[in-house]
Design a protein that fits this description.
351 residues; alpha/beta; FAD/NAD(P)-binding domain; binds flavin-adenine dinucleotide; binds iron/sulfur cluster
Length: 351
Protein backbone atom coordinates (compact mmCIF):
# COMPACT_ATOMS: atom_id res chain seq x y z
CA UNK A 1 0.00 0.00 0.00
CA UNK A 2 1.44 3.40 -0.95
CA UNK A 3 1.94 6.13 1.64
CA UNK A 4 -0.63 8.81 2.48
CA UNK A 5 -0.94 12.09 0.58
CA UNK A 6 -0.01 15.31 2.32
CA UNK A 7 -2.71 17.94 1.69
CA UNK A 8 -1.76 21.48 2.72
CA UNK A 9 -4.73 23.82 3.30
CA UNK A 10 -8.20 22.88 4.53
CA UNK A 11 -10.40 25.08 2.31
CA UNK A 12 -12.87 23.80 -0.30
CA UNK A 13 -10.02 22.47 -2.48
CA UNK A 14 -8.18 20.69 0.34
CA UNK A 15 -11.41 19.23 1.72
CA UNK A 16 -12.37 17.97 -1.75
CA UNK A 17 -8.94 16.40 -2.30
CA UNK A 18 -9.05 14.63 1.08
CA UNK A 19 -12.57 13.35 0.42
CA UNK A 20 -11.70 12.19 -3.10
CA UNK A 21 -8.65 10.26 -1.88
CA UNK A 22 -10.62 8.68 0.98
CA UNK A 23 -13.39 7.66 -1.44
CA UNK A 24 -10.97 5.32 -3.17
CA UNK A 25 -9.49 4.12 0.11
CA UNK A 26 -6.39 6.33 0.18
CA UNK A 27 -5.27 8.02 3.41
CA UNK A 28 -4.21 11.62 3.71
CA UNK A 29 -2.71 14.01 6.23
CA UNK A 30 -4.55 17.35 6.04
CA UNK A 31 -2.49 20.25 7.41
CA UNK A 32 -4.36 23.53 8.09
CA UNK A 33 -2.65 26.57 9.54
CA UNK A 34 -5.72 28.01 11.28
CA UNK A 35 -7.92 26.50 13.98
CA UNK A 36 -10.81 25.75 11.60
CA UNK A 37 -11.43 23.90 8.36
CA UNK A 38 -13.46 25.41 5.51
CA UNK A 39 -11.12 28.04 4.05
CA UNK A 40 -12.22 31.52 3.01
CA UNK A 41 -15.99 30.82 2.82
CA UNK A 42 -16.04 29.75 6.48
CA UNK A 43 -13.21 31.90 7.88
CA UNK A 44 -14.65 35.05 6.27
CA UNK A 45 -18.31 34.18 6.92
CA UNK A 46 -19.61 34.25 3.32
CA UNK A 47 -23.40 34.38 2.97
CA UNK A 48 -25.21 32.68 0.06
CA UNK A 49 -22.81 31.30 -2.53
CA UNK A 50 -22.99 31.70 -6.25
CA UNK A 51 -24.14 29.89 -8.24
CA UNK A 52 -25.85 27.41 -5.90
CA UNK A 53 -27.66 29.92 -3.66
CA UNK A 54 -26.73 27.71 -0.68
CA UNK A 55 -25.49 29.29 2.55
CA UNK A 56 -21.70 28.88 2.80
CA UNK A 57 -22.00 27.48 6.32
CA UNK A 58 -24.23 24.68 4.99
CA UNK A 59 -22.48 23.94 1.69
CA UNK A 60 -18.87 24.17 2.85
CA UNK A 61 -19.83 23.15 6.40
CA UNK A 62 -21.05 19.87 4.88
CA UNK A 63 -17.67 19.36 3.22
CA UNK A 64 -15.98 19.99 6.57
CA UNK A 65 -18.22 17.50 8.41
CA UNK A 66 -17.62 14.64 6.03
CA UNK A 67 -13.83 15.11 6.30
CA UNK A 68 -13.94 15.56 10.08
CA UNK A 69 -15.71 12.23 10.48
CA UNK A 70 -13.53 10.36 7.96
CA UNK A 71 -10.93 8.08 9.61
CA UNK A 72 -8.91 8.04 6.36
CA UNK A 73 -8.05 11.73 6.89
CA UNK A 74 -5.66 12.70 9.68
CA UNK A 75 -6.41 16.33 10.58
CA UNK A 76 -3.65 18.67 11.78
CA UNK A 77 -5.03 22.10 12.74
CA UNK A 78 -2.94 25.15 13.74
CA UNK A 79 -0.08 23.48 11.88
CA UNK A 80 2.23 24.32 8.98
CA UNK A 81 4.84 22.32 7.07
CA UNK A 82 8.41 23.25 8.04
CA UNK A 83 10.31 21.06 5.56
CA UNK A 84 9.56 18.61 2.76
CA UNK A 85 12.22 16.26 1.40
CA UNK A 86 12.40 13.15 -0.74
CA UNK A 87 11.08 11.84 -4.03
CA UNK A 88 7.65 10.69 -5.30
CA UNK A 89 6.52 7.73 -3.23
CA UNK A 90 8.91 8.59 -0.38
CA UNK A 91 8.65 12.11 1.00
CA UNK A 92 9.16 13.19 4.62
CA UNK A 93 7.42 16.30 5.95
CA UNK A 94 8.37 17.96 9.23
CA UNK A 95 5.36 19.68 10.78
CA UNK A 96 5.33 22.68 13.13
CA UNK A 97 3.77 20.57 15.91
CA UNK A 98 7.01 18.55 15.99
CA UNK A 99 5.62 15.51 14.17
CA UNK A 100 7.06 13.88 11.11
CA UNK A 101 4.84 12.58 8.31
CA UNK A 102 5.98 10.00 5.77
CA UNK A 103 3.94 10.63 2.63
CA UNK A 104 3.95 9.55 -1.00
CA UNK A 105 3.02 12.88 -2.60
CA UNK A 106 1.59 16.31 -1.74
CA UNK A 107 -1.18 18.66 -2.88
CA UNK A 108 -0.94 22.38 -2.15
CA UNK A 109 -4.45 23.74 -1.61
CA UNK A 110 -3.33 26.85 0.23
CA UNK A 111 -5.70 29.26 -1.51
CA UNK A 112 -5.51 33.03 -1.66
CA UNK A 113 -5.42 36.15 0.52
CA UNK A 114 -8.22 38.75 0.29
CA UNK A 115 -7.02 42.06 -1.16
CA UNK A 116 -6.57 44.57 1.68
CA UNK A 117 -8.48 47.71 0.69
CA UNK A 118 -6.12 49.97 2.64
CA UNK A 119 -3.90 49.56 -0.43
CA UNK A 120 -6.49 51.64 -2.36
CA UNK A 121 -6.68 54.62 0.04
CA UNK A 122 -8.26 57.04 -2.43
CA UNK A 123 -11.42 54.93 -2.33
CA UNK A 124 -11.97 55.69 1.34
CA UNK A 125 -11.51 52.35 3.12
CA UNK A 126 -10.00 52.83 6.56
CA UNK A 127 -10.86 56.56 6.44
CA UNK A 128 -14.67 56.34 6.57
CA UNK A 129 -16.40 53.59 8.57
CA UNK A 130 -19.22 53.22 6.05
CA UNK A 131 -16.79 52.23 3.30
CA UNK A 132 -16.75 48.44 3.66
CA UNK A 133 -15.74 45.35 1.66
CA UNK A 134 -17.81 42.59 0.07
CA UNK A 135 -16.63 40.22 2.81
CA UNK A 136 -17.97 42.61 5.48
CA UNK A 137 -21.37 42.75 3.75
CA UNK A 138 -21.33 38.94 3.43
CA UNK A 139 -20.74 38.79 7.22
CA UNK A 140 -23.57 41.25 7.94
CA UNK A 141 -25.95 39.00 5.98
CA UNK A 142 -24.65 35.61 7.20
CA UNK A 143 -24.67 36.73 10.87
CA UNK A 144 -28.36 37.65 10.58
CA UNK A 145 -27.59 41.22 11.65
CA UNK A 146 -28.56 42.59 8.25
CA UNK A 147 -26.95 45.27 6.08
CA UNK A 148 -26.28 48.32 8.29
CA UNK A 149 -23.94 51.33 8.15
CA UNK A 150 -21.15 50.56 10.67
CA UNK A 151 -20.97 54.25 11.79
CA UNK A 152 -24.44 54.35 13.40
CA UNK A 153 -26.18 51.07 12.55
CA UNK A 154 -28.75 52.75 10.27
CA UNK A 155 -30.22 51.04 7.23
CA UNK A 156 -28.46 52.51 4.17
CA UNK A 157 -30.81 54.19 1.70
CA UNK A 158 -28.21 54.38 -1.07
CA UNK A 159 -25.44 51.79 -1.60
CA UNK A 160 -22.62 51.91 -4.18
CA UNK A 161 -20.67 48.76 -5.02
CA UNK A 162 -17.30 49.50 -6.67
CA UNK A 163 -15.97 46.62 -8.78
CA UNK A 164 -12.35 45.61 -9.45
CA UNK A 165 -10.90 46.78 -6.11
CA UNK A 166 -7.44 45.21 -6.04
CA UNK A 167 -7.88 43.60 -9.46
CA UNK A 168 -7.16 44.79 -13.00
CA UNK A 169 -5.19 47.66 -11.48
CA UNK A 170 -1.64 47.99 -12.80
CA UNK A 171 -0.94 51.02 -10.61
CA UNK A 172 -0.95 48.78 -7.54
CA UNK A 173 0.62 45.75 -9.24
CA UNK A 174 -2.52 43.67 -9.63
CA UNK A 175 -3.15 42.97 -13.29
CA UNK A 176 -5.37 39.94 -12.94
CA UNK A 177 -9.16 39.71 -13.00
CA UNK A 178 -10.42 38.03 -9.83
CA UNK A 179 -13.03 36.25 -11.90
CA UNK A 180 -15.89 35.87 -9.41
CA UNK A 181 -16.39 39.37 -7.94
CA UNK A 182 -18.74 40.70 -10.66
CA UNK A 183 -21.08 37.78 -10.01
CA UNK A 184 -20.66 37.94 -6.22
CA UNK A 185 -21.44 41.69 -6.34
CA UNK A 186 -24.56 41.23 -8.47
CA UNK A 187 -25.66 38.56 -6.00
CA UNK A 188 -24.99 40.81 -2.99
CA UNK A 189 -26.85 43.67 -4.68
CA UNK A 190 -29.90 41.42 -5.04
CA UNK A 191 -29.60 40.30 -1.41
CA UNK A 192 -29.47 43.94 -0.26
CA UNK A 193 -32.53 44.81 -2.36
CA UNK A 194 -34.36 41.77 -1.00
CA UNK A 195 -33.64 42.75 2.62
CA UNK A 196 -34.08 46.50 2.10
CA UNK A 197 -36.50 47.02 -0.82
CA UNK A 198 -36.43 50.81 -0.39
CA UNK A 199 -32.63 50.94 -0.80
CA UNK A 200 -31.13 52.01 -4.12
CA UNK A 201 -28.12 49.90 -5.17
CA UNK A 202 -25.65 51.05 -7.84
CA UNK A 203 -22.80 48.97 -9.28
CA UNK A 204 -19.87 50.95 -10.75
CA UNK A 205 -17.90 48.92 -13.28
CA UNK A 206 -15.13 48.99 -15.90
CA UNK A 207 -16.46 45.85 -17.62
CA UNK A 208 -18.94 43.28 -16.39
CA UNK A 209 -17.59 39.73 -16.33
CA UNK A 210 -20.55 37.63 -15.25
CA UNK A 211 -19.24 34.96 -17.57
CA UNK A 212 -21.01 31.88 -18.95
CA UNK A 213 -24.43 31.13 -17.50
CA UNK A 214 -24.01 33.83 -14.81
CA UNK A 215 -25.01 36.48 -17.37
CA UNK A 216 -28.73 35.73 -17.16
CA UNK A 217 -28.89 34.59 -13.52
CA UNK A 218 -26.98 37.55 -12.07
CA UNK A 219 -26.37 40.42 -14.54
CA UNK A 220 -29.77 40.57 -16.20
CA UNK A 221 -31.76 39.28 -13.23
CA UNK A 222 -30.26 41.89 -10.90
CA UNK A 223 -31.36 44.67 -13.27
CA UNK A 224 -34.70 43.36 -14.46
CA UNK A 225 -36.08 41.77 -11.28
CA UNK A 226 -34.19 43.69 -8.56
CA UNK A 227 -33.74 47.10 -10.23
CA UNK A 228 -30.01 47.27 -9.50
CA UNK A 229 -28.44 50.07 -11.55
CA UNK A 230 -25.15 49.58 -13.41
CA UNK A 231 -22.95 52.58 -14.24
CA UNK A 232 -19.84 52.29 -16.41
CA UNK A 233 -17.43 54.62 -14.70
CA UNK A 234 -13.90 55.45 -13.71
CA UNK A 235 -13.93 56.23 -10.00
CA UNK A 236 -11.42 58.87 -8.86
CA UNK A 237 -12.10 59.06 -5.13
CA UNK A 238 -14.51 58.44 -2.28
CA UNK A 239 -14.79 61.34 0.17
CA UNK A 240 -17.33 62.57 2.72
CA UNK A 241 -19.26 65.81 3.18
CA UNK A 242 -19.63 65.03 6.88
CA UNK A 243 -23.11 63.52 6.43
CA UNK A 244 -22.77 61.14 3.49
CA UNK A 245 -20.07 59.49 1.42
CA UNK A 246 -19.40 61.13 -1.95
CA UNK A 247 -18.32 59.03 -4.93
CA UNK A 248 -16.48 61.10 -7.53
CA UNK A 249 -15.37 60.05 -11.00
CA UNK A 250 -16.41 59.99 -14.61
CA UNK A 251 -19.36 58.25 -16.25
CA UNK A 252 -17.41 56.78 -19.16
CA UNK A 253 -20.45 56.14 -21.36
CA UNK A 254 -21.68 59.75 -21.45
CA UNK A 255 -18.18 61.12 -20.68
CA UNK A 256 -19.34 63.41 -17.86
CA UNK A 257 -18.01 63.91 -14.34
CA UNK A 258 -20.09 62.38 -11.56
CA UNK A 259 -20.38 63.35 -7.87
CA UNK A 260 -22.95 61.17 -6.14
CA UNK A 261 -23.86 60.81 -2.43
CA UNK A 262 -24.19 57.39 -0.77
CA UNK A 263 -24.77 56.01 2.73
CA UNK A 264 -22.56 52.98 2.18
CA UNK A 265 -19.79 52.19 -0.32
CA UNK A 266 -18.78 48.55 -0.84
CA UNK A 267 -15.39 47.51 -2.26
CA UNK A 268 -15.64 44.34 -4.36
CA UNK A 269 -12.23 43.06 -3.25
CA UNK A 270 -10.12 40.72 -5.33
CA UNK A 271 -8.09 37.59 -4.68
CA UNK A 272 -4.39 38.23 -4.01
CA UNK A 273 -1.81 35.42 -3.99
CA UNK A 274 -1.54 33.78 -0.56
CA UNK A 275 0.92 35.82 1.55
CA UNK A 276 2.62 32.49 2.46
CA UNK A 277 3.55 31.64 -1.14
CA UNK A 278 7.24 32.61 -0.91
CA UNK A 279 7.61 30.30 2.10
CA UNK A 280 5.61 27.53 0.45
CA UNK A 281 7.76 27.85 -2.66
CA UNK A 282 10.94 27.48 -0.57
CA UNK A 283 9.65 24.59 1.59
CA UNK A 284 8.19 22.56 -1.28
CA UNK A 285 10.65 23.61 -3.99
CA UNK A 286 7.91 24.72 -6.39
CA UNK A 287 8.02 27.64 -8.84
CA UNK A 288 5.72 30.64 -8.51
CA UNK A 289 3.86 32.37 -11.34
CA UNK A 290 5.14 35.90 -12.04
CA UNK A 291 2.13 37.31 -10.17
CA UNK A 292 2.97 35.26 -7.08
CA UNK A 293 0.50 32.36 -7.32
CA UNK A 294 1.81 28.78 -7.32
CA UNK A 295 2.60 27.89 -10.91
CA UNK A 296 1.06 24.88 -12.54
CA UNK A 297 3.31 23.32 -15.11
CA UNK A 298 0.85 21.48 -17.27
CA UNK A 299 -2.57 22.62 -18.44
CA UNK A 300 -3.94 19.48 -20.06
CA UNK A 301 -1.82 16.38 -19.44
CA UNK A 302 -1.31 16.15 -15.67
CA UNK A 303 -3.79 18.40 -13.90
CA UNK A 304 -2.20 20.26 -11.01
CA UNK A 305 1.42 19.32 -11.72
CA UNK A 306 3.95 21.80 -10.30
CA UNK A 307 7.64 22.20 -11.10
CA UNK A 308 8.43 19.47 -8.54
CA UNK A 309 7.53 15.85 -9.30
CA UNK A 310 5.07 14.46 -6.76
CA UNK A 311 3.84 17.89 -5.63
CA UNK A 312 0.49 19.07 -7.03
CA UNK A 313 -1.58 22.24 -6.69
CA UNK A 314 -5.32 22.95 -6.88
CA UNK A 315 -7.84 25.74 -6.28
CA UNK A 316 -7.19 29.42 -5.64
CA UNK A 317 -3.52 28.69 -4.90
CA UNK A 318 -3.11 28.66 -8.71
CA UNK A 319 -4.90 31.98 -9.27
CA UNK A 320 -8.35 33.51 -8.76
CA UNK A 321 -10.79 30.63 -8.82
CA UNK A 322 -14.39 29.75 -8.04
CA UNK A 323 -15.32 27.15 -5.44
CA UNK A 324 -16.73 24.65 -7.92
CA UNK A 325 -13.67 24.87 -10.17
CA UNK A 326 -11.40 24.59 -7.09
CA UNK A 327 -13.19 21.38 -6.15
CA UNK A 328 -12.91 19.98 -9.68
CA UNK A 329 -9.18 20.75 -9.77
CA UNK A 330 -8.74 19.15 -6.35
CA UNK A 331 -10.42 15.94 -7.49
CA UNK A 332 -8.10 15.77 -10.51
CA UNK A 333 -5.04 16.56 -8.36
CA UNK A 334 -6.04 13.83 -5.88
CA UNK A 335 -6.10 11.25 -8.66
CA UNK A 336 -2.65 12.31 -9.87
CA UNK A 337 -1.30 12.46 -6.30
CA UNK A 338 -2.49 8.90 -5.61
CA UNK A 339 -0.73 7.69 -8.77
CA UNK A 340 2.45 9.60 -7.83
CA UNK A 341 2.37 8.16 -4.30
CA UNK A 342 2.34 4.71 -5.91
CA UNK A 343 5.51 5.65 -7.81
CA UNK A 344 3.97 6.29 -11.22
CA UNK A 345 6.86 8.07 -12.91
CA UNK A 346 4.82 9.20 -15.95
CA UNK A 347 3.18 11.86 -13.81
CA UNK A 348 5.70 14.57 -14.53
CA UNK A 349 4.75 17.96 -15.84
CA UNK A 350 5.05 18.28 -19.61
CA UNK A 351 8.05 20.46 -20.48
C1 LIG B 1 -15.72 38.23 -1.35
C2 LIG B 1 -15.63 36.90 -2.03
C3 LIG B 1 -16.78 36.13 -2.19
C4 LIG B 1 -16.72 34.91 -2.84
N1 LIG B 1 -17.87 34.20 -3.04
C5 LIG B 1 -17.83 33.08 -3.80
C6 LIG B 1 -19.03 32.40 -4.18
O1 LIG B 1 -20.14 32.80 -3.81
N2 LIG B 1 -18.92 31.29 -4.98
C7 LIG B 1 -17.71 30.84 -5.44
O2 LIG B 1 -17.67 29.85 -6.20
N3 LIG B 1 -16.55 31.43 -5.06
C8 LIG B 1 -16.59 32.55 -4.28
N4 LIG B 1 -15.42 33.18 -3.94
C9 LIG B 1 -14.13 32.51 -4.26
C10 LIG B 1 -13.83 31.46 -3.17
O3 LIG B 1 -13.50 32.16 -1.97
C11 LIG B 1 -12.67 30.57 -3.61
O4 LIG B 1 -13.01 29.96 -4.85
C12 LIG B 1 -12.38 29.44 -2.62
O5 LIG B 1 -12.23 29.94 -1.31
C13 LIG B 1 -11.12 28.69 -3.05
O6 LIG B 1 -10.93 27.59 -2.20
P1 LIG B 1 -9.45 27.07 -1.83
O7 LIG B 1 -9.63 25.89 -0.96
O8 LIG B 1 -8.65 26.93 -3.06
O9 LIG B 1 -8.78 28.28 -1.02
P2 LIG B 1 -9.14 28.95 0.40
O10 LIG B 1 -10.60 29.03 0.58
O11 LIG B 1 -8.34 30.21 0.43
O12 LIG B 1 -8.57 27.92 1.47
C14 LIG B 1 -7.17 27.79 1.69
C15 LIG B 1 -6.93 27.16 3.06
O13 LIG B 1 -5.53 26.94 3.22
C16 LIG B 1 -5.12 27.41 4.49
N5 LIG B 1 -3.71 27.80 4.37
C17 LIG B 1 -3.21 28.89 3.74
N6 LIG B 1 -1.85 28.90 3.81
C18 LIG B 1 -1.50 27.79 4.51
C19 LIG B 1 -0.25 27.25 4.91
N7 LIG B 1 0.90 27.85 4.62
N8 LIG B 1 -0.26 26.08 5.61
C20 LIG B 1 -1.43 25.46 5.93
N9 LIG B 1 -2.65 25.94 5.59
C21 LIG B 1 -2.67 27.08 4.86
C22 LIG B 1 -6.05 28.59 4.77
O14 LIG B 1 -6.10 28.88 6.16
C23 LIG B 1 -7.36 28.05 4.22
O15 LIG B 1 -8.05 27.28 5.17
C24 LIG B 1 -15.46 34.41 -3.31
C25 LIG B 1 -14.30 35.17 -3.12
C26 LIG B 1 -14.37 36.41 -2.51
C27 LIG B 1 -13.12 37.21 -2.37
S1 LIG C 1 -14.70 39.61 -11.94
FE1 LIG C 1 -15.49 41.67 -12.36
S2 LIG C 1 -15.08 42.84 -10.45
FE2 LIG C 1 -13.81 41.00 -10.38
S3 LIG C 1 -11.85 41.69 -11.22
FE3 LIG C 1 -13.00 40.74 -12.91
S4 LIG C 1 -14.06 42.44 -13.91
FE4 LIG C 1 -13.37 43.19 -11.88
Amino acid sequence: MSKPILIVGGGPAGLAAAHAAASVGHSSVLVEKTAILGGAPIQSGYAKLVPSGQWAKDAIGGMVSRVESNPKVEKKLNTVVKSFDGTPGNFVAELSDGTRAEVGSAILTTGFTHFDSVNKPEWGFGLFPDVVTTTQVEQMISSGKGVRCPSDNRKPKRVAILLCVGSRDRQIGREWCSKICCTVSANLAMEIREELPETHVYIYYMDIRTYGLYESDYYWKSQEEFKVKYIKARIAEVTSDGKQLIVKGEDTLVKRPITIPFDMVVHAIGMDPNVDNMTLSAVFGVDLHRHGYIERKDTYGVMGATSRAGVFVAGAAIGPETIDDSIAQANAAALNAIAAAAGNSTLQAAE
